[in-house]
Amino acid sequence: MIHVVAGALFDEQGRVLIAQRPPGKHMAGGWEFPGGKVEPEEQALAGLQRELREELGIEVLDATPLIAYEHGYSDRRVLLDLWLVSLYTGEARSVEGQPLKWVTLDELDTVGLLEADRPMIPALREARR
Ligand SMILES: Nc1nc2c([nH]c(=O)n2[C@H]2C[C@H](O)[C@@H](COP(=O)(O)OP(=O)(O)OP(=O)(O)O)O2)c(=O)[nH]1
Ligand SMILES: [Mg+2]
């Protein structure tokens, strides 16, 4: 089981940040929440902080777990662990060249989000109410 942590960042207009998976990677072209694999012996929050530092150039100061569940791809099983990032420093930018965009929660339905991420949408809606 691969433990994957990802972060939901919101802007002042209530839009959430998504990133496009680069060509050549698993599920290339799909849109996802920034994040990645937790390393052995690493705590989930520390993994989230490291991944968002590497991918977005931000420093996460506060985040809370929102929803976590297992998903079976044809070739792997992942534990998807989405966190709400409530406080960070820096401005999110594409450190690794991956396309980034801010979208409304309604737009998440049609943007080409990874199929495995669909249960995250109602959880995000709930959290924003
Ligand atoms: N980051 C992220 N990964 C997701 C999401 N949904 C989802 O199914 N995944 C899957 C795709 C990949 O199989 C796995 C993340 O692995 P990854 O390869 O991107 O991990 P990573 O950023 O650490 O990159 P690397 O080790 O390949 O360099 O989780 C999501 O919303 N965000
Ligand atoms: Mg990643």
From TrEMBL:
Cofactors named for this entry: Mg(2+)
Pfam families, sorted: NUDIX_4
Keyword line: DNA damage, DNA repair, DNA replication, Hydrolase, Magnesium, Metal-binding, Mutator protein
Entry-linked Gene3D superfamilies: Nucleoside Triphosphate Pyrophosphohydrolase
Superkingdom field: Bacteria
EC number of this enzyme: 3.6.1.55
InterPro entries in UniProt: MutT-like, MutY_C, Nudix_hydrolase, NUDIX_hydrolase-like_dom_sf, NUDIX_hydrolase_CS, NUDIX_hydrolase_dom
Keyword S-adenosyl-L-methionine among record annotations: no
Domain Nudix hydrolase: 1-128
Gene Ontology terms describing biological process: DNA repair; DNA replication
GO molecular function: 8-oxo-7,8-dihydrodeoxyguanosine triphosphate pyrophosphatase activity; 8-oxo-7,8-dihydroguanosine triphosphate pyrophosphatase activity; 8-oxo-dGDP phosphatase activity; 8-oxo-GDP phosphatase activity; metal ion binding
Reactions catalysed: 8-oxo-dGTP + H2O = 8-oxo-dGMP + diphosphate + H(+); 8-oxo-GTP + H2O = 8-oxo-GMP + diphosphate + H(+)
Enzyme superclass (EC): hydrolase
Annotated PROSITE patterns: NUDIX, NUDIX_BOX
Family: Belongs to the Nudix hydrolase family.
PANTHER family in UniProt: 8-OXO-DGTP DIPHOSPHATASE, NUDIX HYDROLASE FAMILY PROTEIN
Name of the protein in its database record: 8-oxo-dGTP diphosphatase
Taxonomic lineage of the native organism: Bacteria, Pseudomonadati, Pseudomonadota, Gammaproteobacteria, Steroidobacterales
